[in-house]
């Protein structure tokens, strides 16, 4: 899906590299929380946002 110009993937590609983005960024771009229990978004190298399950 595309949200405000960003392509958002529900799963993280383990081959991709990215960095954690803050909850403020998630709120700013109104990114949906697919994982409501423990949302963790990554900003990928190609500029897209992906979400996976946080561990620990």
Automatic annotation (TrEMBL):
Pfam families in alphabetical order: Asp_protease_2
Protein name per Swiss-Prot or TrEMBL: Uncharacterized protein
Organism: Paraphaeosphaeria sporulosa
